[in-house]
Design a protein that fits this description.
The protein is of the alpha/beta class and 290 residues long. The protein has 13 helices and 7 strands. The strands form 2 sheets. Strands 2-1-3-4 form a 4-stranded parallel beta sheet, with helices on both faces.
């Protein structure tokens, strides 16, 4: 069993609890051991940079210092946390004086040189799509998803590990291995406006409406993401987009780990789907208990 250090992230213990639980259960099923960093803290991804730039670096740097002590590569599930940790690591390793300043604040060395890996990549690299396909007990043949990465998971090119920052395909390949009929579209990395969700709802409604229109035009019956902020935004703002643009969107949005758990036959997965604001259970009725 491959072992990783694991950064849970705040959302996975609260608003996106189904993501955190499904990530851990799927990882265990696949033989990936995720060991949560002891004493981890919020990485400040959503707002710290608006308060103090040094704080926005010190928060993720403290988690990097914890990861450095373990000696293992670090797995992350939240796209915003993943982006923030990789950004902080890049700044620290590129600027020795900044690294020394942060070390003085933390009282610990933040120069983590191991890999920071998104769980999606860990599954593809360590488990492999062929083995994953062999483990599927409930092929998701009636699902026609589009993969939605959002704007934080694949860019900038020089900092992230995306197979293609403009058209990443690993999520497509993973969903296809689960039996789904993945629909091609050109909005995988477009922004949903998550950071403006409370301040510019008019802008967000327009962005969300555009994404759902494109997904529906592609023939999708659901969207799949790896970002808790994106999922919350896409679910919450569907009704506003409907009121403003007179278009009814009731497209379920899933975390990729939820569909993995369903396809792999995990018994608890039905509890995850009850937490969604747009109820996905009618779409999933062929795969769940009556």
């Amino acid at each position: 069993m491959k072992s990783f250090s694991f950064y849970p992230g705040c959302s996975q213990l609260s608003s996106a609890r189904e993501y955190g639980v499904s990530a851990l259960e799927v990882s265990q099923k696949l033989g990936l051991r995720l060991n949560a960093l002891r004493g981890w803290n919020c990485c400040g991804a959503s707002s710290a940079h608006m308060t103090n730039h040094l704080l926005s670096l010190a928060l993720p740097a403290r988690n990097l210092a914890l990861a450095k002590k373990t000696g293992d590569d670090l797995v992350v599930v939240c796209a915003a946390c993943y982006h923030n940790l990789r950004s902080a690591r890049a700044r620290i390793l590129e600027d020795g004086s900044l690294a020394a300043r942060v070390e003085g604040i933390l009282g610990a060395d933040p120069r983590f040189e191991g890999r920071i890996v998104h769980l999606l990549d860990a599954v593809v690299e360590e488990v492999g799509l062929e083995r994953l396909r062999d483990m599927v007990s409930r092929p998701l043949e009636k699902l026609r998803p589009v993969s939605y990465y959002g704007c934080l998971m694949a860019r900038p090119r020089e900092m992230m590990d995306a197979d293609d920052p403009d058209n990443p395909r690993r999520m497509d390949h993973l969903l296809a291995a689960l039996g789904a009929e993945v629909r091609p579209w050109s909005y995988k990395t477009d922004c949903c406006g998550g950071s403006l969700s409370l301040t510019r709802r008019d802008v967000v409604a327009e962005l969300v409406n555009r994404l759902f229109e494109a997904a529906e035009e592609a023939g999708a019956n659901c969207m799949v993401t790896a970002c808790p902020m994106c999922l919350a935004n896409l679910e919450m703002r569907q009704s506003e987009a409907r009121l403003r643009f007179k278009r009814r969107h009731d497209l379920p949005v899933f975390f990729f780990t939820e569909l993995m758990g369903l396809a792999l036959g995990l018994e608890d997965c039905e509890e995850w789907f009850s937490r969604h604001l747009v109820d996905p259970r009618p779409l999933l009725s062929p795969y769940t208990r009556a």
